[in-house]
Specification:
By secondary structure, the chain is α+β, with helices and mostly antiparallel strands. Helices cover about 45% and strands about 20% of the residues. The two termini are about 30 Å apart. The structure holds zinc ion.
Length: about 190
């Protein structure tokens, strides 16, 4: 794997890539900005992964991964496109996290005789968009669902930055995409 997503400064309007501390670039950090919670931010540049690696990952995701839409109503309405892969082998998931970001968790199944599982997931809407767009040309099963997820991300992404409420129309669109994804996941 040659490269991964580039991290950029979390300060609004700043796109510096040389980071100092707490997700800030040297310039913003020296100004004493951003004391509270922060999350790693990535730029939207296309990632430089070779085509064979992408084809491998897309095939793996096609078979083992999932795309779903979640709606949370408390404490306030929040919508989220969820990209996940579960597997009993950690190594393939590490390729995904190295390339597209996101974390890997270990969990145990209810049946103690079964192997522990690893789950990789993306919880950033922007990274989810980069991921789906990168894999899209190679997907053979999840292409329709991927297309729908990209539409849903267009609703989610502008809200990741500000705290505005979703309009009723946006929520309706999101719910109809969600239902369509459920239908497609059942058919395939
Ligand atoms: Zn900065």
């Amino acid at each position: 794997m040659k490269s991964k997503l580039t991290q950029i400064c979390v300060e609004k309007g700043c796109n510096n890539t040389a980071l100092a501390c707490r997700g800030l670039c040297w310039s913003c950090y020296s100004k004493g900005r951003r004391q509270g919670k922060w999350e790693i931010r990535y730029n939207d540049d296309p990632i430089d992964v070779n085509q064979l690696d992408l084809a491998y990952m897309s095939g793996f995701f096609d078979g083992e991964g999932s795309i779903s839409l979640k709606v949370k109503t408390r404490p306030k309405v929040a919508i989220q496109v969820q990209i996940q892969i579960s597997n009993s082998i950690k190594k393939p998931l590490e390729i995904f996290s190295k390339t597209f970001g996101g974390k890997i968790f270990k969990y145990h199944k209810k049946n103690k005789n079964e192997l522990p599982q690893y789950k990789w997931g993306l919880n950033s809407a922007r990274r989810s968009k980069v991921f789906i767009k990168s894999c899209m040309p190679y997907l053979k099963i999840k292409q329709d669902v991927g297309e729908l997820a990209l539409q849903a991300l267009e609703i989610q992404i502008p809200h990741s930055k500000n705290n505005k409420k979703y309009t009723e129309e946006q929520l309706n669109v999101f719910y109809s995409i969600k239902n369509e994804i459920i239908r497609l996941n059942k058919c395939s």
